[in-house]
Amino acid sequence: MKCPRCQSENREGARFCRECGATLGAACSSCGAKVEAGSKFCDGCGTPLDATPTAGPRASRFAAPESYTPKHLAERILSSKNAMEGERKQVTVLFADLKGSMELLATRDPEEARKILDPVLDRMIEAVHRYEGMVNQVMGDGIMALFGAPLAHEDHAVRACFAALRMQDAIKGYADGVSRSHGVNVQIRVGLNSGEVVVRAIGSDLHLDYTAVGQTTHLAARMEQSANPGSILLTASTMNLVEGYVDVRALGPVPIKGVAHPIEGFEVLGAGPARTRFQAAARQGLTRFVGRGDEMAALEAGLRRALEGHGVAMGVVGAAGVGKTRLCHEFIEQCRSRRLPVVEAHCLSHARSVPLGVLRDLLLGALGVDQHEPPELIRAKIAERLVALDPSLVDALPLVHDLLDVSEASSPEPARDPIEHERVIADFLRRLLRARGAAGPFVVYLDDAHWIDPQSERLLVELADVASTTRAFLLLNFRPDFHTTWMGRSYYQQLSVAPLGREAMREMLSGLLGEDPSVGELAALIRERTQGNPFFIEEIVHALASSGAMIGARGAYRWTRASAELEVPATVQSLLAARVDGLAEGDKLVLRAAAVIGKRFSERVLRRIVGLPTGEVDRSLATLEREEFLHGGAQSEYVFRHPLTQEVAYGSQLLEQRVALHAAVAQALEEVFADRLGERAALIAHHWEQARRPGQATRWRRLAALRVARIQPRRSPRR
Q: What span, in angstroms and rounded, lies between the C-alpha atoms of 645 and 171?
């Protein structure tokens, strides 16, 4: 018997799901009420239960994910479903339901009941899709959704929390009307938990067949069942990923049915002050800023040129976590200390689908208004500041009011063709920037530009072109896969940010760990694993401290375990997995095969095991080099730019996939290096061992041992 809530298999006749604790039984196809097994009629609406459900609005709207998943999400999932199937994913699971639906709908006509319930489900589903989650199932009175699968997101937990807040707000607004019209109290409860799932298959109807690792799904369902109506509950595993992004109230240990010990629970109270990962980290205290003297000097040189009257746009590019935002933050703080006006905006991964979202943030900053102020106050400030810059800008007030969503109801901006609307906005931007430039020098800072929405990105061209004719310094940071047309302009300069050098890493780790002898070996291991990536360093140290492997405080830790072992933190796994998922299907296949070979691999071995035509492999390797996953070495070898990328690409594959690939690698090594087998004997043995072939592994280990014995220098006899 399959659970209708979490899809876990249960024994026939079971009354409750052993995975999520939901009541097992049929649901009425007419009103959605739960009914006991063996019932002939629904005790909620009287519909015969053995009758074949008739096609109708409900059947077509909620029968399968394809019927309610937005087209753009469905296309992204189906276009790459082959590359997503058979993967382990870091996810956040969300359960939401209408509390007391049986009592609420029991005395009502089925059609009236559906009119009350369906809008609740619609609002739940819309909130999930707004943050690119996947509603995998609609039950009678609730939904189950995944964030991070099948589409990987490095901020899956943040998206899930914001979706939960959005659906609660939407339901509260809807409930006011239902209370007046039907005299019923509508409230939902939401539960969240983060962990790992295995994506087994994605159906053509978008239904996701998955297997939870551990209690990932069970705890999310239990959080929902423990939540009070109108509230959102998180487990500690989700809380660790969203600290700073949401405000919470700690509930202490929460008893959970099916779990031996109570678990820590947290109630979400609202959105927190942090909008970005850097802002969330800054609330915990920033680490020492080290190793960026040359980069700060380059930024200062660009600013000097802008102040001399030659506007500059400077792009700071680097891999995820390498420290682009921290570098820009330190520079922007220097600008502010010199009383230079700064306008900044942050591009958010979950806001890419919001048209003109980044442009709105820039306008709010440029005009010095707070979006949370009353609309009439915002309109007054806009008028005052636009007129102060240039009195002729008064004719743009209706457009600006419309862009910032503060128009008066009696005088909204008339609807325009989208292309014409962008042209009008571009013209306004040119006028605004010229007026601002005439008033003196200024700095515009755009953080994480790789997540800018398409409409704002097109208008950024206008901003950059006009800014170059003023004393403006336009600073933006982004990852290597971001490209835009104006980067070829003469006013554009680019600054690449590399990982920290050895001395800078030592200084950073000293500030984080301290100088106790017990952390000496640990510091060396962290340096080796993180390869100078500051975010990875911070997250590993934080994870070790949270797990109890270290005791003390920042800068004064002591190691408490017998040996130093490092696991990849969930935050780092999610970030790297999202990068891998952003690759085209063929590129992802090549990267995953390479990850099985090892951190350093032979191109000839890769070509033998990947099963793709030569031209496709060539294109994929070129892409992976360009996107900074790999770099070419000597003798047709490639190396993963970061060892943790290799670990995540390897660990995301199912065990049976890895076993088969290890066997293929061992065979390929034997064939490719047939004339130098002794040199590769230990490596071949390793792959046969991972392929679960102990006989072959033993044979090659003997050969490796014989080779070591032959080349080992003989010791002189003792006298």
A: 41
